Structures are given as structure tokens and as C-alpha cells.
Amino acid sequence: MNPRALRLRPALILAIASAAAFAVALARAEIPLEQRRSSYADMSRDNKAMQDDDTSNPGMLSVLDGEALWSEKAGAANRACADCHGDAKSGMKGVAARHPAFDARLGRPVNLDQRINICRSERQQAAPFALESKDMLAMSAFVAHQSRGEPIAPPDDPRLAPHREAGRAQYNARQGQLNLSCGQCHDDNWGKSLAGNTVPQAHPTGYPIYRLEWQSLGSLQRRLRNCMIGMRAETYPYGALEYVNMELYLMWRARGMKLETPGVRP
Amino acid sequence: MNGRLALALALAAFNAASSQAQSGLVPYQVVGDAIPRSLTGAPGDPARGRAIVTRREYTCLLCHSGPFPEERFQGNLATDMRGAGARWTPGELRLRLVDATRLNPATIMPPFYRADGLNRVGPAWRGKPILTAEQIEDVVAFLSTLRD
Model confidence over A99-128: pLDDT tens digits? Predict the structure, then answer.
């Protein structure tokens, strides 16, 4: 062996070793695009009917509240969303399908709720909605509802890539006292029964959802928090960048799937 | 396996055993694929073990099923527990409960008697194993009764 090859060896060994470590961490395969399904498909006939019929979908009440807020003047600017954006039907169509998006001024990705709150504070000069509050969820349900049936279309923005990859790493990392990763349930064991609950593929198609167990509407971050508590992991405060990064990865994983907002889930 | 790797693995096992002692857990010795000796030095109680296995907070039936006709919701992410006592010796069951990742690094079976090397554990659970040494022995005693 020539000396040059010899010098390369430690690097090579390191590369092989880290490739092996990677293989353990990323042993699972992502779900092939054509096998992806919304957990709508796993629901009972009654729950599907509840989601499908706008007069029985409890999430539609919040959509109606959001519609009222849309044209209500607010803040020191005394302006309504409608004053800038006009009719939400056209102006807001597809917006939820391309969030989280990169906010150049903040230098980080923001989800739909945060985007709405940026308008609240900057354009309306009003207090931002508290995350998970009734008004916040009503407004984001109303805006996301305008994208119902639209395919999820994550922006092709290179500034988002490191955040999406951070989200992917979190998704694949074991965490909590139960030492599980998100992917071990949602990629490796979807469709199976976790004490009677069908493990879904974890696609963020219906958010905010009306969850029967909650008896209320809740955001995707609330759902992530639920799973993290289930794993006995430390949660993040609502709005944390870590959650937004995970949302970015989940939306990318669900690219092309159709939004259902407001989804109903058991 | 080359010699250096074997040595590294042995050292890792040694470190695991000593950090166990640091985190207040009872040290134990792995022999082959088993922990032959009771963690408490005494046999467990199978009736208490059954109660642990069926209690939701201890998680077993999230993934497993077993001979528990009164439990409506059982999981199928893992094997049925029937016959576990025929498939495994008490020492083998003990290691599988204490830390199944020692046998299969990719397993989803949580390490029930480990408090270190975990990532982002919530404050309510930090520094504690899922089950105590006594509870591990109770579950081992119960599983050993599942012969068919």
C-alpha cells in the first residue's frame, strides 16, 4: 500500500463507521409516495360522514367564526384582513398548502398561525392571537379551509432546506423515556393497532382538526405535543422553531396529498 | 468480530453497568443473552406482575396482546405474550425487559430499566426507569407463568 493510501485510511474508517451508525438511525424506509394515505381512510363510517358533511362537521363552526373575523376591523390600523386580501376564496386558496414558508425578515420559517399573527401585529397593529386560542384556531381553520382539496405544495425554497432536514432528524431520533422515534410508529408500524388505535401515517392533511377526544379544534402542534407526551418526551412551547421544523418535514412528506381542513379525528 | 471491536463492546457494556450504579439503579450482569440473577435478590410476585402488564401506564398492551380477556384494547405492534415463559428463561425475559436494545439496537420495545442514554426525557420521567427493580421481577415472575 502506498503512503498516501495509508494517510487516507483513518478518514475512510471514520466514513464507514459513520455510515454504519447512519444505517441504524435511518434503517427505515420512507413510505413510498403511492402508498401514502390520510388517516381519514382509517376512520369509522360515522366519523367520515361527520367530516364530509359541512352541517355536521364541528370544525365548520370555527370556520364560520373565522370568516366573521376575516372582515372585522381590528387594531390601531382599524383594518380587516379583507381590506388587504379581499375575498378569501380566491386570495387565500393554496396558502395553507404552502406553509410553513420562509419569512425573510425573521430569517426563519413560519407556519400559517404565525403568518396570520405577523399580519395582526404589523398590518393591523393589533395584539397577536394567543396560539391555540379560539380566535387563532378559527382564523387558521378559515384560511386553511380555502385550500380544501388543494395538493400540499411545500415551497421550493433553499432557505427552508436546513429546517426541513432538522425536522427530519427530529422525526427519526429516539426520544423520551419510551425511547421511540416518530418514524418507528408512523413509517414502520402504520396500520397496526396501538392498544386499539390504528397508527396513522401522520400526514398533516386535516389541520386544524376537530378531535373528538379533545372536544375542540386543535393545531398540528397540539397533535405533535400529544405524541411527544405519549413518548414521555420533553415538549416545546407552542410556536417553537423545533415544531415548525417538524411541520416542514411532515408537509414535505405529505407533498401532493390533498388538504381536508377542517378534518375530524377520533 | 475483530479483537478491538470486541474490546470496545465489552468496555461499553462495562460503562453501561457503572453508569447504572451512578443513576441509582441496581447494577446487573449480562451473561449471554440473559440477566441470570434477580435484580432484587428475591423472586417476584406473578399476581402483581399481571397487574403491571395490564395497567395502561406501564405500556405493555399498547404494543402486545396476551391472555387478558378482560382487556378490550390490546396492541399488535409486537408478539402475543402467550407462551413467553416457554420461549424464554427468566434470565432471558429479564434482559428483554431491562433493556431490549442490547439485543436489537433497532427495537421499538422500550428499555424498562434504564435511565441513561435517553434523549429529551420529559421532566416528570427524567432520571427514572419505567419500572422499578421490584416491578421488573414481578413481571418476570408473571411472564414465566405464560407457558402456552
Answer: 999 999 999 999 999 999 999 999 999 999
Residue A255 lies in a domain: yes
Q: Which residue has the cell 394515505?
A: A37
Residues ≥6 apart with Cβ < 8 Å to A56 = A49, A50
For residue range A42-83, list pLDDT tens digits in order: 999 999 999 999 999 999 999 999 999 999 999 999 999 999
Q: In B, residues 23-82, which contact A (CB 8 Å cutoff)?
A: 56, 59, 61-63, 72-77
**Predicted pLDDT of residue A22:** 42
User: How many domains are contained in chain A?
Assistant: 1
- Residue A32 belongs to some domain of the structure: no
Distance CA A185, CA A183 (A): 5
Alpha carbons B89 and B92: distance in angstroms, whole number:
5
B12 in contact with A, Cβ within 8 Å:
no
The answer to whether residue B13 scores a pLDDT higher than 70 is no
Q: Give the sheet arrangement for strand A216-218, strand by strand.
A: A216-218, A209-211, A264-265
In a domain, A58, yes or no: yes
Distance CA B88, CA A51 (A): 48
CA distance B68 to B140: 17
**pTM recorded for the entire structure:** 0.89
User: How many angstroms away from the CA of B97 is the closest CA of chain A?
Assistant: 12
What is the C-alpha to C-alpha distance for residues A203 and A186, in angstroms, rounded to an integer?
9
User: Does A233 contact B at CB distance below 8 Å?
Assistant: yes
Kindly report the CATH number assigned to the domain that includes residue A205: 1.10.760.10
Per residue in A212-254, pLDDT (tens digit) is 999 999 999 999 999 999 999 999 999 999 999 999 999 999 9
Return the amino acid letter for A2.
Answer: N
**Which SS3 state, helix, strand or coil, does residue A63 take?**
helix
Quick check: B68 pLDDT over 70? yes
Q: Which residue of chain B comes nearest to A28, CA vs CA?
A: B106
In chain B, what are the domains? 27-145 (1.10.760.10)
Across chain B, what does the average pLDDT equal?
89
Considering the domain boundaries, does residue A220 fall inside one? yes
List the domain range (segments joined by +) for residue A5.
Answer: 1-27+37-266
